[in-house]
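hey
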C-alpha cells in the first residue's frame, strides 16, 4: 500500500488554537501540496477538534480529516450523530481517532480493567450507530444504557477508526482499521508491526514524525539546532552512529532521525532526497500512514509537497492526488 501523509495541525498551543484564519491557510496548503490529509488533535489543551473539522469542511475538497476525540469528551451516541454530520458535509472524508490518554483531565478515574470495559462498550455502541440501519438501538451495559438511540441516522459510510497501540489487541482487532504506534526507533517499530501482524495481518499502521528540511545536510542540521530546545548532554549519548560533525547529531538515533528524549516523536532531518530515502525505509517496515509535524508554516507544507512527494511518486510510494 502506498504511503499516506497527514499534516499535524498545531492546535494544542494557545497562540495558534485561537486563529481560525491560520487553520484554513494551512489546510488549503496541505491540499494544494498534494498531501493526503490533516490530523486534527484533540485533548484538554487543544481547540475542539470536531469544531475545527467542521470549519475546514467548507474550505477543503479532497483531504482526509482525521479527527482525534478523547472518548471521555462525548457520549458515544452524541459522537455518532456528530460524525454523521461531518461525513455528510465533508463528502465522506472523516477518519476518527480515539486516543487512550488524558482521562483524568475529563473527570474519569476508572482503573485499567474498568477503562477497558468502558471503551469496549463505547466502541460497540459507536460501531452500531454508525452502521446503516433504519431502527433505533437499545443497549444495556455496565457503563452505558441507551433507548432508541440513532433512530434518525442516515445511510452514510462509517469513518475509518484509528486506535492507539496502548489499547488491547482484542479491541483493536474488533474495531480499528489503523493502529497508531507510539514513537520509537525504526527497529522497535518493525518489531511492533511484526507482533501485531501475527494476529491481525490486515491492520494498517501509523506513526508521528517531526520534519526539518534543508537544501543541504549541514543546513538541515543547523536549522534543527535553531528550532529545537537542546537538552543537557546525557550521561550516555543516544547516538549509535559515528557522525558527530554537528553537536546535535549525538541524538541521531538512526540516519536522518533525531530524538531528543525517549518517547518523543522522531524528527526527520536532512535534504529532500535523504528524507525521501528514509520515508521509503519506514514504508518498508510496514508503516502506511505518517503524521508529519513540521510547524504551522505554510511554506514547510509546500516545500514537502514540491521537493519530497515527487521523489516518492517516482518510486510509486505515493499516489498522485
Amino acid at each position: 500500500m502506498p504511503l499516506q501523509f497527514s499534516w499535524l495541525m498545531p492546535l494544542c498551543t494557545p497562540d495558534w488554537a485561537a486563529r481560525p484564519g491560520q487553520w484554513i491557510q494551512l489546510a488549503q496548503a496541505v491540499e494544494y501540496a498534494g498531501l493526503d490529509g490533516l490530523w486534527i488533535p484533540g485533548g484538554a489543551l487543544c481547540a475542539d477538534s470536531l469544531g475545527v473539522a467542521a470549519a475546514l469542511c467548507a474550505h477543503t475538497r479532497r483531504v482526509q480529516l482525521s479527527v482525534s476525540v478523547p472518548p471521555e469528551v462525548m457520549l458515544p451516541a452524541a459522537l455518532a450523530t456528530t460524525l454523521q454530520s461531518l461525513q455528510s458535509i465533508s463528502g465522506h472524508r472523516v477518519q476518527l481517532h480515539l486516543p487512550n490518554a488524558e482521562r483524568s483531565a475529563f473527570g474519569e478515574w476508572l482503573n485499567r480493567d474498568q477503562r477497558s470495559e468502558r471503551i469496549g462498550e463505547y466502541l460497540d455502541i459507536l460501531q452500531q450507530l454508525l452502521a446503516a440501519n433504519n431502527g433505533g438501538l437499545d443497549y444495556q451495559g455496565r457503563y452505558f444504557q441507551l433507548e432508541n438511540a440513532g433512530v434518525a441516522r442516515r445511510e452514510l459510510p462509517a469513518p475509518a477508526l484509528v486506535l492507539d497501540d496502548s489499547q488491547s489487541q482484542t479491541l483493536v482487532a474488533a474495531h480499528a482499521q489503523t493502529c497508531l504506534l507510539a514513537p520509537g526507533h525504526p527497529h522497535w517499530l518493525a518489531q511492533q508491526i511484526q507482533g501485531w501482524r501475527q494476529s491481525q495481518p490486515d491492520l494498517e499502521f501509523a506513526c508521528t514524525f517531526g520534519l526539518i528540511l534543508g537544501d543541504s545536510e549541514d543546513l538541515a542540521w543547523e536549522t534543527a539546532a535553531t528550532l529545537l530546545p537542546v537538552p543537557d548532554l546525557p550521561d550516555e549519548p543516544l547516538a549509535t552512529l559515528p557522525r558527530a560533525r554537528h553537536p546535535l547529531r549525538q541524538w541521531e538515533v538512526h540516519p536522518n532521525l533525531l530524538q531528543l528524549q525517549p518517547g518523543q516523536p522522531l524528527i526527520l532531518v536532512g535534504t529532500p532526497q535523504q528524507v525521501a530515502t528514509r520515508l521509503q525505509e519506514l514504508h518498508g517496515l510496514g508503516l502506511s500512514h505518517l503524521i508529519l509535524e513540521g510547524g504551522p508554516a505554510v511554506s514547510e507544507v509546500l516545500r514537502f509537497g514540491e521537493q519530497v512527494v515527487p521523489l516518492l511518486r517516482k518510486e510509486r510510494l505515493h499516489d498522485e492526488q
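The longest strand covers residues 204-213. Residues 155 and 292 are 33 Å apart (CA to CA).
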